[in-house]
Specification:
Elements: H1 3-11, E1 17-24, E2 28-31, E3 36-44, E4 47-51, E5 57-59, E6 64-67, E7 73-76, E8 84-86, H2 88-92, E9 109-118, H3 126-129, E10 135-137, H4 145-158, H5 165-186, H6 194-199, H7 201-212, H8 220-227, H9 231-242, H10 246-264, H11 269-275, H12 281-292, H13 296-303
Parallel strand pairs: 2-8
Antiparallel strand pairs: 1-9, 2-7, 3-6, 3-9, 4-5, 4-7, 6-10
Length: about 300
Amino acid sequence: MDVLSDAVAAMRLGTPHSSRTERRAPWGMRFTPQDGAGFHVLLQGSCLLIPVRGEPIRLEVGDVAFLPRELGHAIADGPDTPLAQVDSRALLDGSALPEDGAAAPSGPVTVLLCGAYRLDQTRTHPLLAELPDVVHLPARLGRHPSLRNAIELLGRELDTDAPGSSGAVAALLELLLLYLLRAWHLDRDGATGWSAALRDPAVRAALQAVHRDPAAPWTVKSLGAQAGLSRSVFAHRFTSTVGVAPQAYLTWWRMTIAARLLRETDETLRVIAARSGYGSEYAFAKAFKREFGTAPGRFRAGAA
């Protein structure tokens, strides 16, 4: 898998959920904080997205707003509209947005496509950690056609009860998340950090090598060879772009894989150690405890 796909897969927990909702003004909703992410796509009308931090954002038709860490936010038809409380955790379990019975029947209509993802925020991949609290992707003609197509398909599936629609919605939500992240990173011309890393052919080649085979006995020299650079040039370029040294990222990613295997599988510690690039259970357990502050066995029991 490529780096972006791996980063999302490592954090994803459970099945994402989405719904299409129609509101007539005046309307407003305040979403409670939760361990996950969410998005809004404006299909008709306009509204305000009010984050916990920062200024309100005006959303127009076609705009997408992605909240990678749900700190709590509000959306409303205007700045002074009273806000009804919405339990974000219920949305993660598949509940639909509550009906707004107080709305005036003659008010302007707003149609939204909303969704929620359950993500492991305890070990956020740095590619997602550097995202702002709100990723706003304004509608622009000809920009990000794959993202727009995924939104259109998702809207169609939510409006039908045809066979396979539940599976199609879940798959489209996974696709939509990847397209959202890709669009934001590719839009950041001249950016530093992980957006720059995904654009840099040499750094990207080394990252892809690590993600393709994390158990390989990688060294700075061998990763530099993957990037087509000398050891010293590669080390400096990787560290200045990604923010950590190559070996530090390699260890972090191996431990992320190990934690996921401990949480989601019944593989033995010996097998997990080998898949994480360690030649012995002892070396693996020592590295794991240094990273997580607990032994692998205790971590697995706690996750269960």
